[in-house]
Specification:
By secondary structure, this protein is an all-alpha fold. It has a single domain, classed as Four Helix Bundle (Hemerythrin (Met), subunit A) (Up-down Bundle), CATH 1.20.120. It is about 80% helix and about 0% strand.
Amino acid sequence: MNNIPFSFDKRLDSEFLQSMYEGDMEHATTIFSMFVDMAPGFVKDIDESFALGTIEPVRSQVHKLKPTFSFVGLTQLAKKAEVLEERCKETSDISDIKDLYNELKSNYAQSFPIIEKELERLKNQINECV
């Protein structure tokens, strides 16, 4: 374990990230990298299910994506995903979740570049310490 001091972007839940990774930036880099690699596919699947008007696949896919938001410090986005997931359980009409879906999608689109930048910063810091 390589403990390196690192300050996460203030737009992320830094306190959560510090407690989760406890200075192990190699582990953080692995998790951030996995998020950058996998999240776009999850979001694409959610988009496709939403376009088809099928609530249960949207709920299921949001459920799978939800915890990954926290792992990269997007705890507010994880909470929004939880609200969307719960709303999916309460309705069978796709139009009932449209606003929540659009908000989640918009917040994700704004947040993804932040995660990509943090991943690069993490990699650079690790390389500087090698």
